[in-house]
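CHAIN AND CONFORMATION:
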Amino acid sequence: MSFVSIQANTQMSSSCTFSLSRPEPDVLCLRLIGTWTVAAGLPVLTDVQAALKGMARLRFDCHELGGWDSLLLVGLNRLRRETEQAGVLFDDTDLPDGVRRLLQLSTAVPERQGSRRETVPVTWLARIGQTAQASFAGGRALLIFIGEMTFSFGRLLRGQARFRSADFLLILQQCGAEALPIVSLISFLVGMILAYVGAVQLRQFGAQIFVANLVGLGMAREMGAMMTAIIMAGRTGAAFAAQIGTMTVGEEIDALQTSGFSPIDFLVLPRMLALILMVPLLCLYADLLGILGGGFVAVSSFGLGISQYYDQTIAALSLAQFGLGLLKAVFFGVLVALAGCLRGMQCGRSAAAVGDAATSAVVTGIVWIIVVDATLTVIYDILGW
């Protein structure tokens, strides 16, 4: 028999209360008053527990008891456990017949040992150890996945990797053409923001013309690749994790392995190739849109001519600058695909696990992008690029 679990209220409800009396020196009488229902709430039974000390029997007076439901049974079960611990007889003779039958049913089958969840306090040292173990396991899983992807690329070069070309073309479309609207909007606005931030400072020295240098170099070397990668991590990386995670829940991954197909070749490889191809192209497109957004601000708000902005941008930029940004974009495409597919393959077997995998893919992808971007920026500076 299952009962509704109710926490004790700190105050007694006017429709659900009790009183205590001692008709005999060693007998405690609990008088139930009012309607004992879930809506009324369970009153605090601390006074009853304290009054049981030195008593031999606990009996009940139900003449003023109105309606009742599982709340009354919860309270009586608590009292019965207290009387057993105190060595007091729990006398249910005066309880309503329905209450007594339900109480008997609740104890008909003894509670299985170990069925209750016990909260064990965890020390800070144990938490550090658990975190270290989880980090080690995550790093090991990542290395294994990278190794499997390396072998998969090797099979692709030998012509042995098996995946559907139609799926690859569909993923290309989803990662490329369908991402153009959001990339266009974000890149244009980022270019406008860079122009405003730079011009506010540069016009103090009468050097508004160098807004073109700031926007062009910022978009080509840094912001174009980074903003494109972050957009793809939130849009495409999460989609990859959700798709592969749903396949894991539906046991489609197991079916592929049973049929002799490698899930890495069939699912991960085409997604990795699609992002490696599309992210650099989207990055180049974002660079151009960002420069256009900066030019719009420079011409409309700071008095630069279109030809001035164009000439200054051409003078500041070179193909090498775009190449450095595109190299970052290739790394970022690999990272977004790696995060999305890895979290999808690690997904649990429930619907909630799919959502967790998608969230983890976005967070992991963005963190990796920022870390790798900072590393490449330092390397570029050391090499003098």
